[in-house]
Amino acid sequence: MDVLTQGLLGAALSQSIANKKETRIATGVGFFAGLIADADILISSASDPMLNIELHRHFSHSIFFVPVGALIAALILWPILQRFFNTQPLTFKRLYIFCLLGYSLSGFIDACTSYGTHLLWPLNDERITFHLISIIDPIFTGALMIAVIMAWRKHRPRIAHIGLLLCSGYLLLGLLQLNRATDLAMELAHSRQHDVEMLVVKPSLGNNLVWRSTYIANETIYVDAVRAGITENKIYPGSSVPLFVPERDAIGIPKDSVLYSDILRFKKFSDGFIAMEPGKDNILGDMRYSMLPNKIATLWGITLDKNKLDEHAYYGFYRASSPDDRKNYISMIQGK
After folding, report:
1. Of the candidates 302, 307, 272, 268, which has an alpha carbon nearest to the alpha carbon of residue 285?
2. Weakly modelled stretches of the chain, pLDDT under 70
3. According to the model, what pLDDT value does residue 279 have?
4. Distance between CA atoms of 142 and 6, rounded to whole angstroms?
């Protein structure tokens, strides 16, 4: 999720085991430890742009890396706390426990989003994603923020327990909504007499009412939006685009070239949901994501430059949205 939510979750978890005197120091320590896992965003290569997306949410988000990540956080914080803060009688062991709690669910909460994490690396190198919550969700983040601030101000760890319980309930609600949205997406596909080969249903930005449905049938990617409402469900039909099959569609790109290798890397990263961006004949996009849930307009993709076959593909972001897109998106959330 976003870095603020990561930090708040870490703070709440550390607060949950603190006594009244430790509540405030546990808040800061947990917040910092909750952010450490996302330091992998700094790993990059000027010559290989895709290295960043492959290693982001990778080893640092594995459950097996948690003790190491917590130790790194503790080693960074220990000299700072000793020099600038009166943390006695806080011992290094106690500091490490706070860091361990703060770091512990960084990978899990990211796996709850649609982006996924390498949660079981090195035993399993596949991205694990549960599609329970948007990368940015104001309700989830707001509940955590209120609980953390109140626990900090009142020196009452029990408030953190309540906040964590509420957020757990919200994730369970996300699971319920995911199942409802998946049923709607499958019903839509069957109404078109499509034999679905692959389907991914994920929450749209900032809510768990409107979901983006992306499925593959007959070598075509179909994108729609479904609203799993409280009293009424709605379908917002989208459009389709031909599936990009490297063996067939990478014309003029030798299979032993660096560019072709990057196409395969991007295909793996995108779980196979790749297609040429409509209107842009050289952008290969990840069709699972778009600013508007029922629109084919990728958020990121690679450039297929046949003049640079032996160079790594350029990886770019395309996040522009029009006023009409934003208006339509709000209307979908409202069920209009």
Report:
1. 302
2. 86-88
3. 85
4. 12
